[in-house]
């Protein structure tokens, strides 16, 4: 899935205060914003449209070729029994 970037304007002093107080509560602004956008998506996009998009994204993910897994490097030591 391709990600889009959202840019908003917000007073810098308010942003500093927000991030400061969120960090005291072990909360991340990025995560909170993503959760809020997800809730807006679920509120405003009809269920049928969301199901269509979810199905389309899952088909795209299944169609992507998997990258081959490389064997782990052994660090040059030979652990064979002789």
Plain-language structure description:
With 82 residues, this protein is mostly helical. It has a domain at 28-62. The protein is 56% helix and 0% strand. The protein is built from three helices and no strands. It is flat, with a radius of gyration of 22 Å. The protein starts with 11 loop residues before the first helix and ends in a 19-residue tail after the last helix. The model has no long low-confidence stretch (mean pLDDT 88).
Question: How is this structure best summarized?
Answer:
The protein has 82 residues and is an all-alpha fold. The protein has a domain at 28-62. The chain contains 3 helices and no strands.
Task: Itemize the secondary structure elements and their pairings.
Layout: H1 12-24, H2 29-44, H3 47-63
Q: What are the salient characteristics of this protein?
A:
single chain, 82 residues, mainly alpha, 3 helices, 56% helix, 0% strand, DUF6103
